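[agent] plan:
  1. take the single chain provided in the ticket
  2. run structure prediction with default settings
  3. attach C-alpha cells to the ticket
  4. add a short note for the reviewer (M.T.)
[agent] executing step 1
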Amino acid sequence: MPNFRNGRLSEDIKREISGLIREEIKDPRVNAGLVSVVRTELSGDNSHCKVYISSLDGADAAKTAVKGLESASGMMKRQISNKLHLKKCPELKFIADNSIEHSAEIARMLEKIEETEDGE
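[agent] step 2 finished; step 3 output follows
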C-alpha cells in the first residue's frame, strides 16, 4: 500500500501530465480535448509510474494517443522533474484504458431505461 507521500506525488504527476497534454503536446495522435489521464500508479521506490489514458473516442483512439505520448515521454519527464523539483523522475509507462467509453455506455443504457419508464 502506498504511503502518503507516494500518493501525493502520484496525484501531482497526474496533474502535471494532464496539463502537458492540454498545453504542450503537439502530436496529432494526441487529441487534447478527447484524451484524459484516468489515474496514475507510482511504484514504492518512485522509479516507475503507470499512467492510464482514456479517450472519449474509444479504446482505439486511446491506444493511438498512448503511442503519441510515449514518443513525448522524454520531454514530459523533464517538465515534471522541473515543476515538482524531483532529483530523479520516474519512468513513465502509458497504458490505454477504456473507462471513459465504458462510463458513457452505462450512461446511454440508463437513459434508455428512463425513456422506457417514461413511455409506460
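[agent] step 4 note for reviewer: The chain has a mean pLDDT of 88.
[agent] ticket updated
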